[in-house]
Write a structure and sequence with these properties.
single chain, alpha+beta, Archaeosine Trna-guanine Transglycosylase, Chain: A, domain 4, 6-stranded mixed β-sheet, 5-stranded mixed β-sheet, 5 helices
Length: 253
């Protein structure tokens, strides 16, 4: 079987340099590549928005149903091979329920191959070879807010909330990505599309951005609430901690 894995920098270059020997995928639901990859499969790699330029073979694969404790063990054991073992880079990952680790070998650069847009999917399973590009595994990521999920979904559905803030970026957090926000029962609530991503220090947040979250009346209030939340998941959080501010639009209720 053949697959296409979409990566962002610096992880794409780390694949080429050999520094990254494990491709990891964490998800809320059982979507590709979970339980869909086998030893000997071909994985084609492409940087977001660019052609496929790398080919590799699957050397080994492991699957996990995760808890925060299991993810922490994965970080300690495989973090460097995945691309980072820094505690702060794994905070959002701890919320995911499933994990696929894919060891790769025989990494080779190939002539650029143009492929259709993945519509936000970070992993595509092909029917046949890369030349056919008949996609079967482009499942859209599903996620929920870290706190007050039902309340925040209501704000999104009413057009009051068009942004969210988190501590660490996923490899597939890119402009144009579509994803589904799920309710507390795991049912689909709405489809959203990322329109902008801002990376900054917590102390550099502005009211112009913060107000897009639709939850607070002042920047001071926004900072107080978010600082309290972030300290629960990262004891070392402070004013200089880097955050990711994602702006999105509601595509479908």
């Amino acid at each position: 079987m053949e697959h296409i894995a979409i990566l962002r920098q610096p992880f794409y270059d780390m694949i080429l340099s050999g520094e990254k020997t494990i491709e990891s995928r964490f998800s809320m639901n059982k979507c590709a590549p979970y339980k869909r990859v086998s030893v000997g499969d071909v994985v084609w790699f492409k940087e977001t928005g660019k052609p496929v330029t790398v080919r590799a073979i699957v050397k080994d694969v492991k699957y996990f149903e995760t808890t925060p404790e299991i993810i922490e063990e994965i970080r300690k054991t495989y973090g460097k091979e995945i691309g980072t073992d820094r505690f702060e880079d794994w905070q959002e990952t701890c919320k995911k329920n499933f994990c696929t680790l894919v060891w790769i070998k025989d990494v080779k650069r190939v002539l650029p191959i143009n492929v259709p847009r993945s519509n936000g999917a970070g992993w595509i399973i092909l029917n046949g070879s890369l030349g056919s590009i008949e996609e079967t595994g482009a499942e859209i990521e599903r996620w929920k807010f870290g706190t007050d999920n039902a309340k925040l979904i209501d704000l999104v559905l009413r057009g009051k909330k068009t942004a969210t803030t988190y501590l660490t970026a996923d490899e597939n957090d890119v402009v144009g990505k579509q994803s589904i926000i799920v309710d507390d029962n795991g049912k689909d609530a709405c489809l959203v599309e990322t329109t902008a991503i801002h990376k900054m220090k917590f102390c550099d947040m502005t009211w112009e951005l913060a107000k897009l979250e639709g939850e607070n009346k002042t920047l001071k209030e926004w900072k107080e609430i978010h600082e309290k939340y972030f300290k629960k998941i990262n004891k070392n959080f402070n004013e200089n901690t880097k955050i990711i501010f994602e702006i999105f639009k509601l595509v479908k209720k």
